[in-house]
Specification:
Shape: globular
Strand order of the largest sheet: 1-3-2-4-5-6-7
Helix content: 25-40%
Structural class: alpha/beta
Number of domains: 1
Number of helices: 6
CATH superfamily: Alpha/Beta hydrolase fold, catalytic domain
Largest sheet: 7 strands, mixed
CATH topology: Rossmann fold
Order of helices and strands: EEHEHHEHEEHEH
Length: 207
């Protein structure tokens, strides 16, 4: 299922859906997020890849790419949209964010704690989520490349502020885009396992 701003894929029997928020200057057609989404789909997870900015906003509004409150509101709207969609209404929901999209994912998790059951950040600027960090209740997996030193330090600081269950996973030798051999595959497997954790309390059903 496709729209002007999002692509929803629901494998047969999918019982969980994961919404992806890309980072600055990217789009829902990002080969990195598409690669992670394929691994999740193969595991039976639904995926929604969406653009938090329109094409025009991406072209003309460079400042909007770092307007984290705006990106957060649009991520919240995506959560609400999934909750209203007949095919995904009440379905357990996870969020996957990259770069600035990870901050938007944390904001949405903080604002919709009854709906968001898990969050994964890939090389995320999670520090930009600000005060929302302490209000997140869903389990959070922070994945950072070992050679992405600045982002790694920012993620360590955010991990210290998280009240929710969380884990910081450092991929040795990987840089910000995880372009190194096997790095992105490791990200995808870790994300898949995080969203498929057997703990029944991980996801919350919508009411």
């Amino acid at each position: 299922m496709s729209s002007s701003s999002g692509d929803l894929v629901l494998p047969d029997g999918a019982r969980t859906v994961v919404a992806f928020a890309h980072g600055t200057g990217s789009s829902r057609h990002s080969p990195r997020n598409l690669a992670v989404a394929r691994v999740l789909q193969e595991a039976g997870l639904g995926t929604l890849l969406l653009d938090l900015l329109t094409e025009r906003e991406e072209r003309t509004g460079a400042d909007l790419r770092f307007d984290i409150p705006l990106l957060g509101r649009r991520m919240i709207a995506a959560v609400d949209r999934l909750d209203a969609h007949p095919a995904t209404r009440g379905m357990p929901l996870g969020l996957f964010g990259a770069s600035t999209g990870a901050a938007a994912a944390l904001i949405a998790a903080a604002e919709r704690p009854e709906r968001v059951g898990a969050v994964v950040s890939r090389g995320g600027r999670v520090d930009l989520a600000g005060a929302a960090i302490a209000r997140v209740r869903a389990p959070v997996l922070l994945i950072v490349g070992g050679h992405d030193e600045e982002v790694l330090e920012l993620n360590r600081a955010v991990a210290a502020r998280l009240v929710a269950p969380h884990r910081l996973e450092v991929i040795p030798g990987a840089t910000h885009l995880f372009a190194e051999e096997n790095a992105l595959e490791t990200v995808a497997r870790s994300a898949r396992d995080w969203f498929l954790r057997p703990d029944p309390a991980l996801f919350h059903a919508g009411g």
